[in-house]
Amino acid sequence: MSELKPADPNWEENCRAFFERQEINRTFGITMPVLRPGYCELEMPFDRRFTQQDGVLQAGVPAVLGDNAGGYAGLSLFPAGSNILAVEFKINLLAPGRGQRFQACARVVKTGRTLTVNDIEVFAIEGETRKLIAKMQQTAIRVDIRPA
What does the longest C-alpha to C-alpha distance in the chain come to? Predict the structure, then answer.
């Protein structure tokens, strides 16, 4: 695959500003350690508040982490003045969410004028062990930012 080029010279600043404005990132303790054109990694610590009855991560949490990572991967390629929204995603939960922290790695597979398709993997990390717990495919749409 050829190198993906951002359409906005301020792509990183804009992506990080979007990240900071999204309240759910603070609620879940999500950080963005890696952001490159067409690629994003998000991480969050384990938090018992987001588990189900048996102490593993509730299924919606990897979906949130993966959905957001895909969004920033796609947004990094869009022109200035763009926003991104998920159109659909499919998630396969492959293993229980047990770990000290969780990581979503999102990569743009194909980007167009409006739609972007992203491949996303979510991992549970315990010490030095990294285990794939979910696999996602996401389609997102570019929309123009409207003044408030």
Answer: 46
Q: Is residue 3 part of a domain?
A: no
How far apart (Å, rounded) are the C-alpha atoms in residues 119 and 128? 24
Residue 147, phi-psi category: left (phi > 0), alpha (psi -120 to 50), beta (remainder): beta
Provide the CATH number for the domain around residue 83: 3.10.129.10
Domain that holds residue 21: 11-144
- pLDDT tens for the chain, 148 residues long, are 457 899 999 999 999 999 999 999 999 999 999 999 999 999 999 999 999 999 999 999 999 999 999 999 999 999 999 999 999 999 999 999 999 999 999 999 999 999 999 999 999 999 999 999 999 999 999 998 776 6
